[in-house]
């Protein structure tokens, strides 16, 4: 990445600008803007997050926000209420209070003498979600958004209930947020006599969100609120949607490009859950330059050509050897002027010949361990590995060797007819690229809770032995399968630990299956190009403890229990400007017996540390989830330390009845 130090306008930074909400709650914002903005007002760009501007997102903030400011914008990074250096309490993700606060910040910014009245909003993940949801509320000053790694559907395409199946990330993310939100404000900003009161109040009111999310197992009003797919027409601001093929949110770019009536463009590259100017796998792109083109057009009314950009720009990845991490993905950029594209045709492949005896699908509960993380984050061993271990536990439909390469661009689908021997059952379908030597690389996958085959809102139990039809939509992808390789469709009825298992072992009798494959004419090279990545001066830190990520799968040959152990040590660094040191370690274990779905268990343990000049705090949060045939049982604990003294402890435990899952 090229570091830019000279900008058209000189930048000033305000590390703790207070923005007081109508109810009196003070939000803390870190703001960068041109020094002369008071004389020559500029548009504002808002990023509204719970992830702590002081020590959480500071790495990416340093690269991004000063860059925008230097090009004539007031870039505002706000800590949401109840997090970081802001007052107040947070009780859930994407609450009405959170969205209203963002609308109030937008109105406040638009009214400032240094602002020209136009505001944009951007963010990745949580910030990508809430900028779309805020856009649907249509605050008058909001003219454009840039949403990265986000979703339009809070129920079926987030970390909660993919395809109606309970994702383990539902529990994992609740554990993460319990840890993230347990940290105090910085005493240098909050004040020596105030930070501790704010912290203890925050801890006393801390929510563990897993039980709440488990109480909404169907697509009810809780999930519809904030899901802009309920009414795409509510979004009037111009939307630039960006995603990555190695992220969990692969479908949003297509959904937005297909449905938004406002100006909309989409870009999707080979990246994990990161901003694309520093993301991996490479190639990264000049995201900040691309963002400036968007902001300049919609916030400054400068003709930058974005309106004539292709509707959909995607990176078609070449086939590679399976690996848990790829520093780079070879491939090419393709462009479609409209999306869905009339150039993409569907090829239909019957996987089971007519009249054949039904195929039995009865996978061990441990099938799925090669699937990787739902949204890889650490530049570490989190990607799907060689699929052969999972293929061996699935029913596989191998296609003939390809005589010529094909480009798969879009969302593959598999239509099935099947019966189940139990009233509740899941199905997981993977599309794989099989190399000549048998190595199996995951192209895309989809999961479906078969009780949700007709509706996520009104599930219907399966009648054992009765044949039903279902359609499994796999995630969007852009992938070249070379000549000499073959496609494999792998079908299982378990996918651990991506989804929580059905309450009983299941056998599916698969009587028909049809693959619908979206094929694009073979690209001969890059059809578009992006500038090389640029960024402002990187965050200046001293490394105290280096980061490290590890994953291990162990099988106890005596008990049969299979355990996935994950340790993500995010390291510890000291900020060279204000001296605050922060460190973080996440530990997860996921255990299951191949024959017993009720043996499934997940445990997490997070450690967070902050220190400066003899002052230190530490939080330890732990959580566990298991289930019986009727209930999910979740528990959690917070311990907070000032120095070595325990100053707060709290336990959570709740049992939530299982619905049709």
From TrEMBL:
Q: Is Nucleotide-binding among the key words of this record? A: no
InterPro entries assigned: AB_hydrolase_fold, CocE/Ser_esterase, Galactose-bd-like_sf, Xaa-Pro-like_dom, Xaa-Pro_dipept_C, Xaa-Pro_dipeptidyl-ppase/CocE
Gene3D superfamilies (UniProt xref): alpha-amino acid ester hydrolase ( Helical cap domain), alpha/beta hydrolase, Galactose-binding domain-like
Q: Which domain of life is it from?
A: Bacteria
Q: GO terms for molecular function, please?
A: hydrolase activity
Q: Which Pfam families match?
A: Peptidase_S15, PepX_C
Q: Which residues form the Xaa-Pro dipeptidyl-peptidase C-terminal domain?
A: 292-539
Keyword terms = Hydrolase
Q: What is this protein called?
A: CocE/NonD family hydrolase
